[in-house]
TrEMBL record:
InterPro entries: Beta-lactam/transpept-like, Glyco_trans_51, Glycosyltr_51/Transpeptidase, Lysozyme-like_dom_sf, PBP_transglycosylase, PCN-bd_Tpept
PANTHER family: BINDING PROTEIN TRANSPEPTIDASE, PUTATIVE-RELATED (PTHR32282), PEPTIDOGLYCAN GLYCOSYLTRANSFERASE (PTHR32282:SF33)
Biased composition (Polar residues): 1-12
Domain Penicillin-binding protein transpeptidase span(s) in chain numbering: 377-631
Organism: Sulfoacidibacillus thermotolerans
Source organism superkingdom: Bacteria
GO MF annotation, one: peptidoglycan glycosyltransferase activity
Protein name: Uncharacterized protein
Region Disordered: start-end pairs: 1-21, 773-800
Residue ranges annotated for the Glycosyl transferase family domain, each copy included: 79-261
Key words, A-Z: Carboxypeptidase, Glycosyltransferase, Hydrolase, Membrane, Multifunctional enzyme, Protease, Transferase, Transmembrane, Transmembrane helix
Biological-process GO terms, alphabetical: peptidoglycan biosynthetic process; proteolysis
Catalysis performed (reactions): [GlcNAc-(1->4)-Mur2Ac(oyl-L-Ala-gamma-D-Glu-L-Lys-D-Ala-D-Ala)](n)-di-trans,octa-cis-undecaprenyl diphosphate + beta-D-GlcNAc-(1->4)-Mur2Ac(oyl-L-Ala-gamma-D-Glu-L-Lys-D-Ala-D-Ala)-di-trans,octa-cis-undecaprenyl diphosphate = [GlcNAc-(1->4)-Mur2Ac(oyl-L-Ala-gamma-D-Glu-L-Lys-D-Ala-D-Ala)](n+1)-di-trans,octa-cis-undecaprenyl diphosphate + di-trans,octa-cis-undecaprenyl diphosphate + H(+); Preferential cleavage: (Ac)2-L-Lys-D-Ala-|-D-Ala. Also transpeptidation of peptidyl-alanyl moieties that are N-acyl substituents of D-alanine
Length: 800
C-alpha cells in the first residue's frame, strides 16, 4: 500500500505534458474554427452585399450615351415624319465639344468636377468625404459624383433615385464608361443632357438650348459671367430659377466664378470683370416661338406620348417614369398606323369653321366671357386589324388640348346595334324580320322619384308593329328597350365589354337605359369605331392600336404590334346586322339618309346617336375597309345649336361625308353575304311571308334570313275590309250602311293592346291601319267575310 501512492504520482507527472499539448491543440482548433467562421461570414457578407448592390445593374450600352438629347420621332405608316414630342422640350445638341466654348466648359468643370481630366471616373477622396457625411445623417445627402457619374446617372438611371445601391452601381458603370469612351466624348454627352428647367414655359435640355433661350446667343459666345450663370442652374433647376429666384442664381454664379479664379481659368482682371457684369440685364426677354407639339398632327403625337412609355418600360424592364424620361431623349423611332393623307384630310375638315356653327357668346346664356366653340372628335380605324388610320381630337390644339377621341360621353342610340340588336340576333331571339311593337310602356325604376320610367321616342310618338330592321333604321326607342328587357340588360352589358366599351359601368348592367345609351358610364369615338369595325369584320373584334413598331436610336426593334382579336358575333350575325345598318343610310326613312343622298350608290352602313336635349350627336359608319366614328358637342355638355343651316343631328353625318366620301367613291366597295343567308319578301306587320294584300298595303319588304330561320307561312293578317266613318271614327260597314258611305280598305288584324287613361294619348299610330273592332251603330251584320273576333293571327315576338 505504501508503494502504491508514489507510483500513481509518478504516472500523473509522466502524462502531464501530453494533457497540456491536448489542451493547446484544442484551443488552436477553436481559434482556427473561429477564424475560418469569421472569414466565411466576411466572404458571405461580401458576396451577399455584392449581390444586393449589383442586382439589376443595367448593362452599359454606348447607344444610351450616343446622344442623350436626341428627339424621339414619330412617323406615319408610309414613313413620312409626323413630328416629335413637346415634352422633350427644346433640344439643340452640340456636335463637338468645341461648340460649347472654353468659358462654359471651364464653368462646369469648376462647379461640378475640377479633377475631371485626372480621375478614372470616380473620385475616391470625395467619396470618403461624402460617405462620412451620409453616415452621420443616415441618408444620401452630400454629393461626390464626378461628371462621368452624372453622365451615367442621366443615361442609365433617369429616375434619379438616391440610394446607396444605386450609387455603387453608378460608380461601377462610370469606371466602365471611362474605359470605353474618351473624356471629351463624356463631357460632350453630359453638356447635351443637362436639364435647365423651364424658361418662358419651355423645357430646356442641353447647354446650347439654355444659352439661346436665356441669353440669345450660342454657347461658344457666352462670356465667363454668362457661362457661370448657365452652369448654376442644373444643380437644382427649381431652386436656381432665373424667373423665380434670380438672387439664388447670382449667389451660385459668384461661387462658380470664384472657383474659376481659384483654378486659374480667370485671371484677376477677368474675374473682377465677370463679377461686375450685369447678367440679369442681359437676359433674353422675348420668347422663342415654341409649339406645344412640334407636329402638324398634335393629337396623334399626344396619344403616342402616352402609349410609347408603356412599351418602352415593358421592353427595357424599367419603371414608367424612367421610360417617360427615356422617350424624351433617346432618339426612338416610332412608326404609327396613321395614313398620312387621311390624317391631313381629317385635320383640315376639323379645322374648317364652315363645318360648325358660330361659337357661343354671352348673349347665348353662357357665363364665360370668351366664346365657346363646339368641339369634335373623329377616328378612322381599319376594320380587319384595328389599326387607327386617322385622328382629329379637336378643332384647334393650340386652343384646347383635350383629345375628344378619348373623351367618354353618352352614346345615345349608337349603342343599340351593339348591346341590343347584335346580341339578340346572336342568340336567335330575333331575326331582322321579327316583329316588335313600338307602344307606350311603363317600367319600374327605383332611382326615379315616382319609381317608374316612361320612355319616349325621339319624335314623342309611338308607331306600333314593325320589323326589327325598321325599328333600328328609324331609331325608335321602345322596341329596343323592350327587347333588352326580355333578354336582360346584363347580356347587353356583356357584349359592350366584349366590344371594348370598357367605360360602360357595372351599374349599367342592371339598367334598361343601356338600350338607348342612357348609361352612367360613357364611350369615346375610338372605342365606338373599334366596336363597329367588329361588325364590318365579320364579328371579330380587333383592339384599336396606334403604334405599329418602335426602334431605338441604333435601329434595334424594341416593339412590334401583335393584333389582339377575338370573336364576338358569328359571321352570319354580323352580316345580318350590316344589312340592317345599311338601311339606316340607304332607306329614305333612315336616320342617316343624308349620306346616301350625298354619296350615290355607295355601300355604307352605320348608326346615328343623340343624347338628352341633343347635348351630343354621333354617327358611326363603316365600309368593307374602314370604320369612322364622329362626335360633336361642347366640353361642358349643353344643347347643340340647331338651325336651318346647322342641324345638330346631321353634323356628324356631314363630317363623315367630308372625310371619307372621296375614298368611298374611289374604292367602290360592296358588302358580301355568307352563302347561307337568303332574301325573302315578308309582311312588316306579321313577319310572315307577304301575301298580295300585304304588298298592296305597302306592308311588305325584302329581308334576309339564315337558312332555317326564314318564315314558311303566308300572312293572312291583311284583309279586304268594308268600312265606313261615323263621327270621324272608322267602323265596320254593315248591311244597313248606306252604300255611298262604304269603302273597301286593306287593313290588318292588330293584336289587342290595353290602353289605360294615362297612355291613351300615346296610342300607336298603326291603329289607323288596323281592322276596327266596332261596327256601324245603325245595326246589322258586318259585310266583311271575317269577323274581327275570329281572327287570331298574332305576330311572333322575341322570347326571353
Amino acid at each position: 500500500m505504501a508503494n502504491k501512492g508514489p507510483r500513481s504520482n509518478s504516472t500523473l507527472q509522466r502524462h502531464h505534458p501530453d494533457a497540456r499539448q491536448k489542451r493547446a491543440r484544442k484551443v488552436l482548433q477553436i481559434r482556427l474554427a473561429i477564424a475560418l467562421g469569421g472569414i466565411a461570414v466576411i466572404i458571405g457578407f461580401t458576396i451577399g452585399m455584392s449581390t444586393y448592390l449589383l442586382k439589376d445593374i443595367p448593362a452599359l450600352r454606348l447607344s444610351d450615351f450616343v446622344d442623350l438629347s436626341a428627339a424621339s420621332l414619330v412617323y406615319a405608316s408610309d414613313g413620312s415624319l409626323l413630328g416629335r414630342f413637346a415634352s422633350e422640350g427644346d433640344r439643340r445638341p452640340l456636335i463637338a465639344l468645341k461648340e460649347a466654348g472654353n468659358s462654359l466648359v471651364q464653368a462646369f468643370l469648376s462647379a461640378e468636377d475640377k479633377d475631371f481630366y485626372h480621375h478614372f471616373g470616380i473620385d475616391p477622396v470625395a467619396i470618403l468625404r461624402s460617405a462620412w457625411d451620409d453616415l452621420n445623417h443616415r441618408s444620401i445627402r452630400s454629393g461626390a459624383s464626378t461628371i462621368t457619374q452624372q453622365t451615367v446617372k442621366l443615361a442609365m438611371f433617369p429616375s434619379q433615385e438616391r440610394t446607396f445601391r444605386r450609387k455603387v452601381q453608378e460608380m461601377i458603370l462610370s469606371l466602365e464608361l471611362e474605359h470605353r469612351q474618351s473624356k471629351q466624348q463624356i463631357l460632350l454627352e453630359y453638356l447635351n443632357a443637362l436639364y435647365f428647367g423651364r424658361v418662358h414655359g419651355v423645357p430646356l435640355y442641353g447647354v446650347e438650348s439654355a444659352a439661346i433661350h436665356i441669353f440669345g446667343r450660342h454657347a461658344k459666345f457666352l462670356t465667363p459671367a454668362q457661362a457661370a450663370t448657365i452652369a448654376s442652374i442644373p444643380n437644382n433647376p427649381s431652386y436656381f430659377s432665373l424667373e423665380k429666384y434670380p438672387h439664388h442664381v447670382l449667389c451660385r454664379q459668384r461661387w462658380i466664378l470664384s472657383k474659376m479664379h481659384e483654378l486659374g481659368y480667370l485671371n484677376d482682371h477677368a474675374y473682377q470683370k465677370a463679377l461686375a457684369e450685369p447678367v440679369l440685364q442681359e437676359l433674353r426677354h422675348d420668347h422663342i416661338l415654341y409649339a406645344p407639339y412640334e407636329s402638324n398632327s398634335p393629337y396623334v403625337i399626344a396619344q403616342v406620348s402616352h402609349l410609347a412609355p408603356r412599351l418602352i418600360a415593358q421592353s427595357e424592364g424599367i419603371s414608367l417614369s424612367e421610360a417617360q424620361i427615356m422617350l424624351e431623349s433617346r432618339g426612338y423611332r416610332i412608326y404609327t398606323s396613321i395614313d398620312a393623307n387621311l390624317e391631313r384630310h381629317i385635320e383640315q375638315v376639323a379645322e374648317n369653321k364652315k363645318n360648325f356653327p358660330p361659337a357661343l357668346t354671352r348673349n347665348q346664356h353662357i357665363a364665360d366671357s370668351l366664346p365657346i366653340d363646339e368641339q369634335v372628335g373623329m377616328v378612322i380605324v381599319e376594320n380587319h386589324t384595328g389599326r387607327i388610320l386617322a385622328i382629329a381630337g379637336g378643332r384647334n390644339f393650340a386652343q384646347s388640348q383635350v383629345d375628344h377621341t378619348l373623351t367618354r360621353r353618352q352614346a345615345g342610340s349608337a349603342l343599340k346595334p351593339l348591346v341590343v340588336y347584335g346580341p339578340a340576333l346572336e342568340h336567335g331571339l330575333i331575326t331582322p324580320g321579327s316583329i316588335l311593337d313600338d307602344v307606350a310602356h311603363e317600367y319600374a325604376d327605383a332611382n326615379s322619384p315616382t319609381h317608374t320610367w316612361f320612355p319616349m321616342n325621339w319624335d314623342r310618338r309611338f308607331h306600333g308593329l314593325m320589323t326589327a330592321r325598321d325599328a333600328l333604321m328609324r331609331s325608335y326607342n321602345l322596341p329596343a328597350i323592350e327587347l333588352l328587357n326580355q333578354m336582360g340588360p346584363q347580356m347587353g352589358a356583356h357584349y359592350a365589354w366584349e366590344l371594348g366599351l370598357t367605360g360602360i359601368e357595372r351599374a349599367d348592367a342592371n339598367n334598361l337605359g343601356l338600350a338607348i345609351g342612357g348609361t352612367q358610364g360613357g364611350v369615346n369615338p375610338e372605342e365606338l369605331a373599334a366596336a363597329y369595325a367588329a361588325i364590318a369584320n365579320g364579328g371579330i373584334y380587333a383592339e384599336p392600336t396606334l403604334i405599329d413598331r418602335m426602334e431605338d436610336s441604333l435601329g434595334k426593334e424594341i416593339y412590334r404590334r401583335e393584333p389582339r382579336v377575338h370573336r364576338v358575333f358569328r359571321r352570319e350575325t354580323a352580316a345580318l346586322l350590316t344589312t340592317m345598318l345599311k338601311q339606316v343610310v340607304q332607306n329614305p326613312f333612315g336616320t342617316a339618309h343624308l349620306i346616301a343622298n350625298t354619296l350615290h350608290n355607295a355601300e355604307v352602313a352605320g348608326k346615328t346617336g343623340t343624347t338628352d336635349q341633343n347635348k351630343d350627336a354621333w354617327f358611326v359608319g363603316y365600309t368593307p375597309t374602314y370604320t369612322m366614328s364622329a362626335w360633336v358637342g361642347y366640353d361642358l355638355p349643353r344643347a347643340l345649336i340647331n338651325s336651318r343651316r346647322y342641324r345638330e343631328t346631321l353634323r356628324p353625318q356631314k363630317l363623315f361625308v367630308e372625310v371619307l366620301g372621296p375614298s368611298i367613291e374611289q374604292r367602290k366597295e360592296h358588302f358580301t353575304l355568307p352563302a347561307n343567308i337568303h332574301p325573302y319578301v315578308i309582311c312588316t306587320k306579321s313577319g310572315l311571308l307577304a301575301s298580295p294584300l300585304c304588298k298592296a298595303a305597302h306592308d311588305a319588304e325584302v329581308d334576309y334570313f339564315i337558312s332555317g330561320t326564314e318564315p314558311t307561312a303566308i300572312c293572312h293578317s291583311h284583309q279586304l275590309i268594308f268600312t265606313t266613318r261615323v263621327h270621324g271614327i272608322r267602323v265596320l260597314a254593315t248591311e244597313f250602311t248606306p252604300i255611298t258611305e262604304i269603302k273597301t280598305e286593306i287593313l290588318f288584324n292588330r293584336p289587342h293592346i290595353p290602353v289605360d287613361a294615362k297612355k291613351g294619348k300615346y296610342a300607336p299610330l298603326d291603329l289607323e291601319e288596323a281592322i276596327p273592332t266596332e261596327i256601324d251603330p245603325r245595326g246589322g251584320f258586318p259585310l266583311s267575310e271575317l269577323q274581327p273576333s275570329s281572327i287570331t293571327v298574332t305576330p311572333p315576338s322575341p322570347s326571353p
